[in-house]
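Fold it.
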Amino acid sequence: MKCFLPATPLLYGLAVLFFSCNAQPEANGQNQSPAPAVTAWPEPDTVLQGIPVYATFDKIEPLFRLQNDTTYIINFWATWCAPCVAELPYFDELVDAYQGQKARVILVSLDFPRQFETKLAPFVRERRLKPTVVALADGRYNDWIDKVSPQWSGTIPATLAYKGGKSAFIGKSIHSAEEVQALVEGLQ
């Protein structure tokens, strides 16, 4: 089972493009240079009950270009997505497995912004999730999913791992911490 990111009334007209696995960004005829590498964690727009909140993908995008000796494992999920919730214990295991190593596990919540305080924050607190949890309020999915990975169809859960210039992507549910560890080992 996969969870599809919801179409809001404003995005309804874009839903067909969003759910198409072949949706590509429009070319403007200019060669675009890659985004510059960054070394600092991006500042959130706000922090809600300990969870950094990013209003737009542009604000969180530097998280996907950090250039240092750390491996980043980033999972996109939501509390309303049953397969996402089912795999959360594997990310807790990864935090333990990589303890003392240069690896960071990050859960990017795609919950509805109006539910960050009433649903997401209590969920994170009750589950005592070990990975870093951040919330992304940007519902303009078509504008940014290809920036995460051109392989991403837009369904969640989805997991990106990267270190330096190497990256790997899983666009489906995972069934063990070892599955993601194998992905990470491929980056070495």
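The radius of gyration is 16 Å.
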